[in-house]
Give the backbone structure.
Amino acid sequence: MTAPRLQIDLNKIYHNAETLVARLSKRGISVTGVTKASMGLPEIANVWLQAGVSGLGDSRIQNLDTLRRASIVAPMVLVRSPMLSQVDQVVALTDVSLNSEVEVIRKLSAAANTINRIHGIVLMVELGDLREGIMPELLEATVAEVLRLPSLVLEGIGTNLACRCGVSPDDRNMAELSSLADSLEATFGISINTVSGGNSANLDWALNCADTGRINNLRLGEALLLGCEPLHRQAIKGLHTDAVTLFAEVIESKEKPSKPWGEIAQSAFGAVPQSNDTGSIKQSILAIGRQDIDPCGLTPPSGIVILGASSDHLVVDSGNYSHQLAVGAEIPFQLNYSALLRAMTSPYVTKDIMRTPMTRHLAENAQSSCA
């Protein structure tokens, strides 16, 4: 088979999505499946829809275009504030977008009005992580602007935590978001239909808190694909953490010194290598590198240690591995979100989608529903 490749088990991805959709539904929370880590793969999107996600979200308009071209019928959400240069595409391809800039919202209104289309707006609120969001004290003024613009509907409010600064979703910040929704309804006499509490980092809070308040939506990607939560990278009970596996091929396998020799300067990526002299080691090189993956996000099989990576090479110590690493052998790796994102994006990594009888049945159902 072709290497490097991602082996994608649709059965396991379906199980993860179905399980989380069911658990969150009991708390009154719907799931938007975020497809950005899979580059909008229609096969994964269809499986998520069959598992019960309420819509699909992506930060890249190109991925949402891919889903539309695949004839996938579902609410589509742009989960990053639109670029001014793409507002025409946004209103044509999506139903809702997450926004924090009035100038962008005005352009969305004009673009939607031109094609006689209504576009939904979710206003993002800054609650401490210091990525996107309107400061809470300025939210009412922004709402007033949205309500006066034509061809827009205020769908709701949302927030994003744990992405830039690692601020955890908790009772305090989620209660603040709920309170803002109540206040907007009272002030403007409107209904806030969607209160989107955040991403996979919200799962521990959402599944275990005493009261979810007004939070009725989460935008999930990592948990659906990798079966773990991002705050501590812990596996979620009952989910598969091996739905996606990376395979890379050995292109050199030799015994070499553990310590480099000669005058040491920076490596290709700016680091000054630190090495301990442990004698000779069984060093192997795999045909994959930083252009394709985040080497820090890979977990090798027991007995293999990742030593470093350049653009196109991953260097490992295979001395304690139970199998001899001959040239041509393939090594499986588990991935964290960073490594998955980069591998999915790389055109040099083949995507091998495993279709079992169950997932073929799901695909047939999805195609018939689109007919």
